[in-house]
Structure to design on (641 residues):
């Protein structure tokens, strides 16, 4: 009785999920594997990749080169620094904004959220060029400061939205309860609102930190020669130097770092969210 | 001096007067209840006592000192919220420790008091649990423990049993009475359930439309309601429109149209010809067979129209000569007999002359 009933459901489940699965396999997993493989191949005579005739043709040259030069480590470190700084500034700027939207009358919230995402309606490069015009006369263009400004500007909405979504769900009775039990405004924020908003901060941070690491347009347009980040380096290998194995190795290193960091953050979040407040 | 004094309290929301000139005294150690239908202003009064709302007129005095301008976090009273409002990111122990931490108690004292309070509400084994791991009744106990742990002068309870199922609610009522007696803290309890109010309170203020209709002990409210609203709101009652025919000392002669004379008692001097309502509890009415004789002053013939067998008691709806239905509640205490009359039986409803109360319009 139940078997014929579940059969079409199982079939339709496949029909629905098959196209995206095929798409992701073909255009995400496969290219990713190609990049992984490319990292172990040699550069061709005129750039790109040399043909592979046997497994013996694969080598660790690209990685050896990468780890052999301290400049790459420096660029990695600088990229992580810029990403961290951008994320922190985004948290500080987005928090009051998200809180204000979450606390405004219900019918006005959607409009305010719309204002936050409205800049996306115009082209990203146009908006970065606007910063060139703003920072140029102030003599701040082509500095690390300009890079941070551009990065924060480009990624702020990605911090505001998850934070707002989180803060909006907070039960106002919790703050009243805290106040009733003797907590002043400062304590109410740090003991109730902030810990409960950590999931929002975490997802916002992931949405800001990871794209900033790979971003090449902002440092290229707003930064100086000393401000290049991993993103620029990878782009350079593929488009200008035509050293695909090195570009691939850099990409893999970046992905590995991000995954390791994300894993670490998830582990810390799981422990921190339950552990810190317990009083025994 | 009363622990809490409310003087001529008024609160308006736009054109709506939510609380109108309310004055109350609440004594130390009392279990005081604000009872009324939703929208009667009881929660607004509670929020003004807690400090979340400010009165437009009047004042609230604690130990004779006005609370005006004192923010909620500085008032020596705690609230148990209807939704419990437990901090979801803190353990049970963390929640209960919170008010102690806010009061700046030492770690040693916090640990001791949290332990004691957990024992008081029988949740010793749940100290390390998070609120989402608890049942409704357990959350309720944590909310109570958190409100009591720092020994406030007053504990305000905003319909705290509203979210529990019927059986658990009765259990919690019994626990609440015992708890209040044990800790000796003054409780101000808000509810719309008259049964809950009668069961728990030392005194009850019955509210309607922002006013206190009557403030008295539960049995006084039940047997001597001050007016039609209180009589109707608390328990089941029969209301019969009457005109006063005679009044001599304590005896009152009433006349109900199409029914006849009703003998009642009232110590107040009442003018002959006055119109009012005679209120009579169903359990004070006896239903006899048509031919049975009863030595009771008030006896009216009627026919059983509806019958509700409730196990321990049976509710009879009897149609009287004037077409009105009167409800009578009879205990089924006789052995071997579940009920005494059937639908359609001709019966006589009788009651003592001092069974009901006359209420002026």
């Amino acid at each position: 009785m139940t078997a014929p009933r579940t059969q079409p459901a199982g079939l339709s489940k496949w029909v629905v999920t098959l196209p995206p699965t095929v798409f992701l396999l073909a255009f995400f997993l496969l290219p990713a594997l190609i990049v992984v493989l490319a990292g172990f191949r040699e550069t061709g005579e005129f750039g790109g990749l040399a043909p592979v005739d046997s497994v013996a043709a694969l080598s660790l040259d690209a990685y050896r080169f990468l780890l052999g030069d301290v400049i790459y480590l420096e660029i990695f470190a600088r990229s992580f620094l810029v990403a961290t700084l951008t994320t922190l500034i985004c948290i500080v700027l987005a928090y009051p904004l998200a809180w204000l939207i979450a606390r405004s009358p219900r019918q006005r919230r959607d409009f305010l959220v719309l204002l936050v995402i409205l800049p996306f309606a115009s082209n990203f490069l146009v908006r970065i060029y606007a910063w060139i015009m703003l920072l140029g006369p102030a003599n701040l263009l082509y500095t690390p400061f300009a890079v941070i400004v551009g990065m924060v500007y480009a990624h702020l909405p990605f911090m505001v939205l998850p934070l707002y979504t989180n803060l909006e769900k907070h039960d106002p009775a919790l703050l009243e309860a805290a106040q009733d039990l003797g907590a002043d405004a400062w304590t109410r924020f740090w003991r109730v609102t902030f810990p409960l908003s950590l999931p929002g901060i975490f997802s916002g941070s992931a949405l800001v930190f990871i794209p900033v690491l790979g971003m090449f347009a902002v440092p290229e347009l707003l930064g100086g020669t000393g401000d290049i980040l991993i993103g620029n380096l990878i782009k350079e290998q593929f488009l200008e130097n035509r050293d695909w194995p090195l570009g691939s190795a850099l990409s893999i290193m970046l992905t590995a770092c991000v995954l390791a960091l994300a894993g670490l953050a998830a582990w810390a979040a799981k422990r921190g969210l339950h552990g810190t407040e317990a009083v025994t | 001096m009363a622990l809490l004094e409310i003087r001529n309290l008024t609160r308006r929301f736009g054109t709506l007067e939510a609380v109108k000139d309310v004055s109350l005294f609440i004594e130390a150690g009392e279990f005081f209840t604000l009872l009324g239908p939703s929208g009667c202003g009881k929660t607004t009064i509670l929020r003004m006592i807690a400090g979340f709302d400010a009165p437009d007129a009047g004042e609230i005095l604690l130990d004779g000192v006005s609370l005006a301008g004192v923010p909620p976090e500085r008032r020596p009273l705690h609230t148990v919220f209807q939704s419990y409002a437990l901090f979801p990111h803190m353990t049970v122990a963390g929640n209960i420790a919170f008010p102690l931490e806010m009061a700046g108690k030492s770690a040693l004292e916090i640990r001791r008091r949290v332990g004691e309070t957990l024992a008081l509400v029988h949740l010793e084994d749940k100290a390390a649990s998070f609120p989402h791991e608890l049942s409704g009744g357990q959350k309720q106990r944590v909310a109570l423990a958190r409100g009591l742990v720092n020994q406030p002068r007053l504990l305000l309870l905003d319909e705290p049993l509203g979210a529990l199922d019927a059986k658990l609610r009765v259990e919690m009522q019994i626990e609440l009475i015992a708890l209040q007696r044990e800790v000796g803290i003054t409780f101000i309890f808000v509810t719309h359930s008259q049964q809950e109010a009668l069961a728990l309170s030392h005194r009850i203020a019955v509210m309607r439309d922002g006013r206190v209709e009557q403030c008295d002990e539960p049995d006084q409210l039940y047997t001597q309601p001050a007016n039609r609203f209180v009589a109707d709101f608390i328990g089941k009652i029969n209301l019969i429109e009457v005109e006063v025919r005679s009044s001599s000392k304590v005896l009152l002669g009433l006349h109900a149209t199409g029914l006849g004379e009703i003998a009642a008692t009232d110590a107040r001097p009442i003018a002959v010809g006055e119109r009012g309502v005679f209120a009579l509890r169903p359990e004070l009415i006896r239903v006899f067979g048509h031919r049975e004789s009863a030595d009771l002053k008030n006896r009216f013939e009627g026919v059983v129209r509806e019958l509700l067998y409730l196990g321990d008691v049976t509710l009879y709806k009897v149609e009287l000569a004037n077409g009105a239905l009167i409800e009578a509640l009879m205990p089924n205490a006789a052995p071997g007999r579940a009920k005494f009359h059937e639908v359609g039986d001709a019966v006589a409803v009788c009651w003592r002359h001092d069974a009901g109360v006359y209420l002026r319009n």
Remarks:
- Residues 156 and 188 of chain B are 5 Å apart (CA to CA).
- Chain B has two domains: 4-232, 236-360.
